[in-house]
Design a protein that fits this description.
Layout (H helix, E strand, L loop, with lengths): L9 E2 L7 H36 L9 H12 L8 H32 L4 H4 L4 E2 L10 E8 H4 L3 H11 L6 E8 L5 H12 L8 E7 L5 H8 L7 E4 L5 E2 L3 H11 L4 E8 L6 H25 L9 E4 H4 L11 H11 L4 E11 L5 H21 L1 H6 L5 H33 L9 H23 L6 H15 L1 H21 L18 H7 L10 E3 L11
Parallel strand pairs: 3-4, 3-6, 4-5, 5-11, 8-10
Antiparallel strand pairs: 1-2, 6-9, 7-10, 8-9
Helix pairs in contact: 1-3, 1-16, 3-10, 3-15, 3-16, 10-16, 10-17, 13-18, 15-18, 16-17
Length: 548
């Protein structure tokens, strides 16, 4: 039976704190951060000691004498010897350890804060209902851009899932915005029939918009945004099945933290697709629950990932998605951050997507991501580096987000591949001094944080989440191989950008999913007496289609 009214979802009780309470809360947060830093240092030293003893080369805690002796052995400092190679080696180690420190400390802090309950999304689950929140009855428009030839088998299922299962604080309208180079009469007729129904779940409305002459997701979004009248806009990809409470979690965080955009997390929902889907699922978990929140803590900047996100519509006013960018979502994010808009992550607001259909599809997807990030980095270099109106801390955050990743990737490959390989080949003796040992200590801390977080989040999908814990461990064990793949993708990306061979926006082929029951499918597509309609939009200008 279709539900006519939204269910109440329990959310935490919020109170507006005074200035004294705010200062006290900030002071407590600083104390927790200091405690986490101290814990990180102690953990790194202990891990270094354990690593040394396992290697059969115990090293004392790095005091003045230990450091001096190691510096003399490595770089010839204190000796009348011109040890250029040793100095270069030493310099690499110092830079690598510094960059690792900027990763490990935020990771440890984020993990500790989440376990201590100092996380807005994680605390949602007890207290009051959504009706107690300010602006609780605000209308939200959910937009699903779609390339119909690629997603005709899944778009009905995804639309019905959002209409029936997704909780919202007020009215929810769904817009399916698609492009297709040729007519698809059967699926287009089904979408028109769904849009014409007056008995959709919870009294919701479905709008279907075909964008003529569009060849990208960006153009589809640009066509629909001016037609939306709601103060909030949620964006989902065509294969996404958001968790029922995910939109409410993002809405709560958006209001309480006064944000312009909240980005949720994704996971693979068709785990039966095989090992490829399992490892992508583990990668998504590590990134969304550990790496990205740590990056946000370090840089005070987050980004819009293209799907499972909630925006304030006024933050999107006057902006358009660039159809010539491989990652139009990252480009829009950087432009918003340059304008000092506030974006944050909410990992607990989850949405399931389909795994790429094959290794080839995965390669095309990741290459598009690599090219997109590099395009954005080059495009906004002048604004990030020279814009006089950009606040200093925001500038540092953007510099780290866009450009430090190249240096980090190179040094990570050097640390995890080149140094151990040179040791086994006998070209350079691996000196288990204080700095090199810390490399292993940092990785141990990162791995422990990821494993702890995966275990603590095991309630999400039951036994499937416990299986995910094993694949998170496997993903971490393949760190060196993953780094090599990433640096290969960046190299190909640089080559394509420099030679002008980027091409157009490539669609990711997805594995099909048939999780919708036959009865639900029949109900979703039941014909009505209401005349079906579809809104069509033609661009005033004819654009040359992008090559895919």
């Amino acid at each position: 039976m279709l539900r006519a009214t939204p269910r109440s979802l329990v959310l935490p009780q919020r109170t507006h704190a005074g200035a004294g309470q705010t200062i006290l809360r900030e002071a407590v947060g600083v104390c927790k951060a200091v405690l986490c830093v101290a814990l990180a240092c102690v953990s790194a030293l202990l891990a270094a000691r354990i690593a040394c003893r396992m290697a059969g080369k115990p090293v004392p805690l790095p005091g003045t004498e230990a450091w001096a002796a190691w510096l003399e052995r490595t770089a010839g400092i204190g000796q009348d010897v011109d040890n250029v190679k040793g100095c270069v080696f030493l310099g690499f180690l110092f830079v690598i350890n510094f960059i690792n420190l900027t990763v490990v400390l935020p990771v440890l802090t984020v993990t500790a804060r989440r376990r201590l309950g100092n996380n807005r999304c994680a605390r949602c689950g007890s207290g009051s209902t959504i009706d107690s929140l300010p602006q609780a009855q605000s209308k939200i428009c959910a937009v699903v851009p779609c390339y119909l030839p690629n997603e005709q088998e899944i778009i009905e299922e995804s639309a019905w899932h959002i209409l029936e299962n997704l909780e919202a604080p007020g009215e929810l309208d769904l817009w399916v915005v698609y492009n297709t180079p040729y007519d698809l009469p059967e699926i287009e007729a089904k979408l028109r029939a769904m849009a014409a129904r007056v008995d959709l779940p919870r009294g919701r409305k479905l709008h279907v918009l075909r964008v003529e002459h569009s060849s990208s997701k960006a153009e589809n979004l640009n066509a629909v945004l001016p037609q939306l009248a709601s103060p909030y806009v949620a964006v989902y990809d065509a294969d996404h099945h958001p968790d029922p409470e995910s939109l409410l979690l993002m809405y709560d965080k958006l209001l309480q933290d006064r944000l312009d955009c909240v980005q949720g997390s994704t996971y693979i929902r068709n785990l039966q697709s095989g090992l490829l889907g399992r490892f992508i699922d583990a990668e998504f978990f590590v990134n969304h629950f550990v790496i990205l929140p740590a990056m946000k803590l370090l840089t005070s900047s987050a980004f819009f990932g293209g799907s499972n996100a909630l925006w304030r519509r006024e933050a999107l006013s006057g902006k358009s998605f660039e159809h010539n960018m491989q990652t139009e979502d990252i480009d829009l994010s950087i432009r918003a951050l340059i304008e000092c808009r506030r974006i944050d992550f909410c990992p607990e607001a989850r949405s399931g997507e389909l795994a790429p259909a094959s290794l080839k599809a995965l390669y095309k997807q990741r290459l598009r991501w690599a090219i997109g990030w590099d395009q954005v980095s080059f495009k906004h270099f002048r604004s990030v580096v020279w814009d006089a109106e950009l606040p200093f801390l925001r500038r540092l955050g953007l510099l780290h987000m866009l450009y430090t990743r190249w240096i980090s990737l190179f040094l990570a490959v050097f640390a995890s591949v080149a140094l151990p390989l040179s040791h086994y080949l006998g070209q350079r003796s691996w000196d288990w001094g204080p700095l090199p040992v810390l490399l292993l200590a940092y990785y141990v801390i990162l791995a422990v944080c990821c494993m702890v977080e995966s275990i603590c989040q095991a309630q999400h999908r039951g036994y499937q989440s416990w299986i995910q814990v094993l694949f998170v461990a496997g993903y971490l064990c393949l760190n060196s191989q993953i780094l090599m793949i990433q640096i290969a993708l960046v190299s190909i990306s640089m080559f394509k950008i420099s030679t002008g061979r980027v091409g157009g926006w490539a669609v990711t082929t997805r594995s099909s999913s048939k999780n919708l029951s036959p009865a639900a499918t029949a109900e979703a597509l039941r014909p009505t007496n209401v005349q079906a309609f579809i809104v069509s939009k033609e661009d005033e200008e004819t654009r040359t289609p992008l090559l895919v």
